[in-house]
Amino acid sequence: MKDLLKDPTLLRTQAYINGEWVDADSGETFPVRNPATQEVLAEVASVGGAETRRAIEAAEVAQKAWAARTAMERSAILRKWNDLILENVEDLAIIMTLEQGKVLAESRGEIVYAASFIEWFAEEGKRVYGDVFPLPQSTSRGVAIRQPVGVVAAVTPWNFPSAMLTRKCGPALAVGCAMVAKPAHETPLSMLALAELADRAGLPAGLLSIVPGAHAKPIGDEMCSNPIVRKFTFTGSTRIGKMLAAQCTETMKRTSMELGGNAPVIVFDDADLDKAAVGAAASKYRNSGQTCICANRILVQEGVYDEFVEKLKGVVGTFKIGDGMDESSTHGPVITRKALEDIKEMVDDAVAHGAEIAAGGDFGAEGEQFIQPTILCNVTDDMRVFKEEIFGPVAPIFKFKTEEEAIAMANDTEFGLAAYLFTRDQGRSWRVSEGIEYGMVGVNEVLISSTFIPFGGIKESGQGREGSSYGVDDYLEMKYICFGDLGA
Ligand code: NAP
């Protein structure tokens, strides 16, 4: 793997704790595999609760000195980090494609997206303002200031191994917090490479520690129970998120939860069907269907159903499935063999209940972890593909009759992250956007995510917003100060 990198020293396999690269206390390591070939890419240190505690204790010390520096000083270091990430896009993209499977073009896009959170918050950290309150006593004045919450612990998933770190540590570091972060065990190399660049940028020791591990529980237990940690931020599944949020209540930590989704794409009969088909395909099959805002249910008005399916089949027919390192591949493998089997079970359930496979449907033929982009027709709301996050390249296409029915179907889920609609009717675009229960809505647009927007969900998709000027709020406490005895 090192031979593929211009700068092989970006390949880090030890934990990064208090500014040092260290092995696990136990000496244990775990393998990181290429999902396209199953080849073992590296053995990475597998740390546990004790190392995590040390990282948290170091963060406590480092955070105090960091918070005492000016926002401009913090910004200068973060900007340097951003520049180093952008100078190393190609190597970072190769590391990501090898461990995560997404095609190189998507990996390059993610690295630039990841850097953008550092750059954005390096600036936003300079704009942390307070408030002055009129008081009932003429001799007093009230002000509120905003201060960093302190030590933050973060846990991230494998589907965006770089951006899910920077979306959290960008705002946290910019406003004066320190962070201890755990990558997913499938994709630790991307996060460790970013830590190497943070180190080179001059980020002081202890401010950002990375604790990879084969066993998530002891790391999570320490993060969620240690009273030094004042804030826990998680991106991952709703099941794990709920469990960790519950653990955090014991020490009353603040939490941000970016959890699962079940995004509807609603295609009305007045929509531009070509654009809707291209948009639905982009949303559904990006990262081989493994994003939290991926289209999960495509809801199409009955009069245009057949035409839409044909157009979607046309778009899917242009895809080339293959190893992400091959520049001609448009879509890579899924993350593990287990993921492939879970997705297949959902398709089998749909077929057993009467669904038809209109395209694809091949699991494993092009390589152990490759799924052909699949379209399912004749699907109904009692099937698993309606209720559960598919997290793979399978598009079930449901039929609806009226706008009211589309809204009801879209809302018929415990999730509420992203939703999309295609219509040329302005009134309808407002009515439906306001009527559906989601944190983010794309109208005639599926590329909704960027640094500039408040990303996040409602219902069981979580709480908190990442990105935009609101992105700093989750890392700041408000303190009220009353100045009395000021004279008449
Ligand atoms: P996951 O199984 O919940 O894992 C996410 C992270 O949690 C991994 O780092 C995992 O570590 C860790 N984890 C598991 N058990 C833990 C414990 N007891 N203590 C501490 N950490 C623990 O989710 P996933 O399958 O990796 O990711 C896919 C999910 O993420 C999907 O549901 C997707 O929708 C969601 N997601 C949401 C957003 C958003 O912004 N809303 C963005 C991306 C993804 P190990 O890898 O070591 O097990």
What does this structure look like?
This protein is globular. 37% of the residues lie in helices and 20% in strands. The protein contains 14 helices and 20 strands. The chain folds into two domains: 2-260 and 461-480, Aldehyde Dehydrogenase, Chain A, domain 1 (3-Layer(aba) Sandwich), CATH 3.40.605.10; 263-412 and 418-452, Aldehyde Dehydrogenase, Chain A, domain 2 (3-Layer(aba) Sandwich). Helix 4 (104-124) runs parallel beside helix 5 (163-174) and helix 9 crosses helix 10. Strand 3 and strand 4 (40-45) form a beta hairpin. The longest helix is centred in the first third of the chain and has 21 residues, at 104-124. It has 488 residues and is of the alpha/beta class. Strands 14-15-16-13-12-17-18 form a seven-stranded mixed beta sheet, sandwiched between helices. It starts with 14 loop residues before the first strand and ends in a 5-residue tail after the last strand. The structure holds NADP nicotinamide-adenine-dinucleotide phosphate. NADP nicotinamide-adenine-dinucleotide phosphate binds at residues 155-160, 182, 184-185, 216-217, 219-220, 235-237, 240, 244, 258-261, 292, 389, 417, 457, 462.
